């Protein structure tokens, strides 16, 4: 899973560097279509409230997309500028990949400790393990 995440991240960064305007358009259209899907699924499952809220969100999303569509070139330009800064300083990407590897290693170690704690049925240890899992991942994320 960790290797797949690194591969997907690298592919996404490459796609973002070369197709910034398309990426912004896809993100905007995807958010609108997701709301439509929630509305349709809501009605299909018999949840009228979820269906109505999904369609309301779809309508608001369509209005928002119509308003901001002319501003996509500006947003793409900002994204391109940020990605140029990232590509000019690839040391930052190496650090991010290093910390992703550390997080993966910690997760594997954590799961082995969790298995031992669950077999002993000590809920205090289980709680402290969950706390340490969250804490370490937050530290790793905020360090990058």
What do you see in this structure?
There is one protein chain. The chain is mostly helical. The chain is 92% helix and 0% strand. The chain is built from 6 helices and no strands. The longest helix is centred in the C-terminal third of the chain and has 31 residues. The radius of gyration is 21 Å and the shape is flat. The mean pLDDT is 88.
Essential attributes:
144 residues; mainly alpha; 6 helices; flat
What's the structural blueprint in terms of helices and strands?
Blueprint: H1 2-18, H2 20-44, H3 48-68, H4 72-88, H5 90-120, H6 123-143
Characterize the biggest β-sheet: none
The helicity comes to over 70%
Name the beta content range.
Answer: under 5%
Uncertain residue segments: none
The helix-strand sequence is: HHHHHH
Report the total helices: 6
The count of β-strands is 0
Structural classification: mainly alpha
What is shown here, in short?
The chain is mostly helical and 144 residues long. The chain is 92% helix and 0% strand.
């Amino acid at each position: 899973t960790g290797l797949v995440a690194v591969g997907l991240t690298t592919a996404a960064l490459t796609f973002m560097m070369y197709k910034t305007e398309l990426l912004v358009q896809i993100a905007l259209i995807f958010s609108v279509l997701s709301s439509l899907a929630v509305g349709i699924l809501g009605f299909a499952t018999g949840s009228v409230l979820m269906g109505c809220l999904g369609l309301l969100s779809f309508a608001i999303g369509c209005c928002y997309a119509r308003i901001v569509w002319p501003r996509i070139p500006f947003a793409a330009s900002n994204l391109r500028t940020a990605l140029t800064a990232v590509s000019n300083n690839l040391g930052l990407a190496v650090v991010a990949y290093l910390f992703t590897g550390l997080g993966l290693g910690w997760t594997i170690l954590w799961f082995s400790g969790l298995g031992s704690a669950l077999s002993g049925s000590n809920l205090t240890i289980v709680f402290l393990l969950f706390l340490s899992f969250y804490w370490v991942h937050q530290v790793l994320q905020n360090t990058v």
